[in-house]
C-alpha cells in the first residue's frame, strides 16, 4: 500500500509558499502510482525502492515545513539514464555486458542534483550504450511512448536513445530526467513525446561518471515538461569539473560569458525592439520531411515573426555530409571506448572465456547486442590503416566544414575560436548574421514500433539528419514541443544558451497563444493526414 499524505492547513500553506503544486510526499506517491501503472512502457531498467523514495520525500517535506528547502529542486523526482553512474543503483547502459555493473561512485551530475535534495527514482531504459534512435536495442525490451489508451501506449516509439527518460517524464513517473545526447538522443525522444529536451553546448556539463559512447560528441541532456524545470537543472549542473578534462574551465566560461552578455546588450540596444534574428537553413528542408512537419515549421516561423523576430533564410551547405560524417566518427570513437569491455577490466565474463584459452572473443560476442557489434566493426574498419584516410580523416574534415558553416551564419563569433587576447569590441562579428537557428527536431511524428522494426539500418540512421549537425559543431540545442507530436529545435552559437532559451521560451508560449495554437493545430492536422495512413 502506498502511504498517503496527512495534510494540515499549515503544511499546505508552506508548500504553496515554496512554489509546490503539491507536497513532496504527494508528488512521490503520485509518481509511484504512475510507475506501477506504466510498467508496460519499459521506461526503467532499475527502480529505486519505494520506501527510499518516500523517506527522501518525507525529509524534503519536513525541510519545507521548517522553510529549510535546500533548493528549488529539493524533493523533486529525477530519473537518470542508465549510462550515467549512480552509487545506489546498477549502471547497465542497457547492455547484457554490464548487467551486474555497480558503480562505486555517483556521476558528478547526479551528485550535484542529490546535493540539492533531488530524489533519484530510477535508471531509465535506452538503446544499448546510446546507439539507436528508438530505444528498441535494449535487453530490457523496447520502450514505448505513453499514449492515451493502453493499446496506444504499446504502439509508438518513444524515440531514442534516451527513450526511457522521455517516457518516464511523459507518463508522470518523475518530474525531470537526465539523458545523454551524442547525435540527438535527448532531442528526438523529447520531440516524439511532446517534451522539452535540451542538449547543452559541448563541454558545459561534466561527463565524469557518464559512460562514453563517442567522447567528442557526448553531452548530458535534460528532459522535462516545462523549460523552467530544465533550466533549474541546467543551472545546478553548469559548472566546471576537475574530474572531467573536457569540461570547460572557469576562465573560458567567464570570457565567453562576457562576450555573450555584451552581444545581447548590443542586440537589445541597436536593433528595433531588440528583435531576434532567426536563421532558417534551406538545406534542412529535406525531401523526406513529412508535410505536416514542414507546415508546423512554417507556422512556428510565422508565430516568431509575430513576436517581432526577423526571419532570415540561411545556407549551411555541408549539412548533407553531416550524417555520413557522424556515422563514421561516432562508431570510430565507440570502437575505441568499448574496447574496455573484455570480461577482465569490465563486463560480464563469458564462461568459455578462460585463462590459457580464448580470451575476450566469447565475452564480447555474447555481451554486446547486434547494433553495438555492427558499430564496433564499422568503427574498427574506418580506423584501420587501409581505410583511415578515406573515411575517418575525411569525416573529421567534414566535421570542421559543418562547424565553419554554422560560424559563418551566426552573428556572434564562436567563443572557442577566440584567442583570449583580442577584445570583444575588436573581434569581427557578422552584422548580417543570425542569433539562433530554428528547424524541426524530427522529420515526422513518432513512428509505430512495428514500423521501426521493419526499418533498414540506413532508414534508422536517416532519422537523425536534423539533430546531428548541431552535435558535430558542439552547439546548444533544445527541442520545444510546439505541437504534441513534433518538436522544433532552437540552435544557438557555442555557449549562447541565453539566446537559445529566450527564443525557446517564446515557442513554449506558442500553444498557449491563440494564434500560435491555431497554427499548430492546423499543422498537426496535416501531420495526421500524412503520417497516419493505417
Ligand atoms: N541515433 C544516434 C546514434 O545512434 C544518436 C545517439 C545518441 O545521441 N546517443 O548514434
TrEMBL record:
Pfam families: Amidase. The keyword Mitochondrion applies. It comes from the Eukaryota. InterPro entries: Amidase, Amidase_CS, Amidase_dom, AS_sf, GatA. GO terms for molecular function: ATP binding; glutaminyl-tRNA synthase (glutamine-hydrolyzing) activity; transferase activity. It is found in: Mitochondrion. GO terms for biological process: glutaminyl-tRNAGln biosynthesis via transamidation; mitochondrial translation. Keywords: ATP-binding, Ligase, Mitochondrion, Nucleotide-binding, Protein biosynthesis, Transferase. Allows the formation of correctly charged Gln-tRNA(Gln) through the transamidation of misacylated Glu-tRNA(Gln) in the mitochondria. The reaction takes place in the presence of glutamine and ATP through an activated gamma-phospho-Glu-tRNA(Gln). Subunit of the heterotrimeric GatCAB amidotransferase (AdT) complex, composed of A, B and C subunits. Belongs to the amidase family. GatA subfamily. This is Glutamyl-tRNA(Gln) amidotransferase subunit A, mitochondrial. It comes from Pyronema omphalodes (strain CBS 100304) (Pyronema confluens).
